[in-house]
Amino acid sequence: MRSPNKHKIIESTKKRPHLFILGAGATKATIPNGDKNGRQSPVMDNFLQEIGLSDLLKEVILKTQSNNIENILAKKWEPFVQETNYHLNIHRSLLDTLLSKFPRRSIEEYTKRYIEGWWGNSRLTLKECTSFSMLRQLFEPLIVNEKNNNYNVI
Predict the structure, then answer these.
(1) Are 108 and 154 in contact (CB under 8 A)?
(2) Average predicted confidence (pLDDT) for the chain
(3) Core-most of 100, 116, 127, 128, by most CB within 10 Å?
């Protein structure tokens, strides 16, 4: 039996869907002083109450007494997580994730690391920004590259 072409395996893997769950902590870290009107983003404790959806889970039987949406979701996701043999990563900060190290190119980075065995670093990584102008300045080189059809950050 002939082994598959390495290029075909890599390209196939890049096209597979992947899931990224971004929490409110990332929003708080990105805009710690609130939005342009000074409104703070809701956090995990009392989240449903803060956004006016406390009745949403009124008839759901929960295995927790917590009002923290992360705790509630963790109990609901437990069966799914067990089925994946716990192959997931939970990060407390967006800045600790692959998305931060390789913004807009996380699947390419994942492929290079876990399929091709590459352990280099990206030239563009996210960092804590206190304004949208700082974010714009950080992403400007990436946007220029994309306008020139260069989608390689690595």
Answers:
(1) yes
(2) 76
(3) 100
Angle between helices 6-15 and 106-114 (to 10 degrees): 140
Residue 13 burial (C-beta neighbours within 10 Å; 0-12, 13-18, 19+): middle
Q: Identify any residues that bridge with 45 across adjacent strands, giving them in sequence order.
A: 68
Q: How confident is the model at residue 85 (pLDDT cuts 50, 70, 90)?
A: low
Please state whether 88 falls in left (phi above 0), alpha (psi between -120 and 50) or beta.
Answer: beta
Neighbours of 99 (CB within 10 A): 19
Contacts of 129 (CB under 8 A, 6+ apart): 30, 135, 138
Per-residue pLDDT band for 153 (boundaries 50, 70, 90) equals low
Residue 68: is its pLDDT beyond 70?
yes
Q: How far apart are CA 23 and CA 57, in angstroms?
A: 19
Give the containing element (helix H, strand E) for 16.
Answer: none
Q: What is the DSSP letter of 35?
A: S
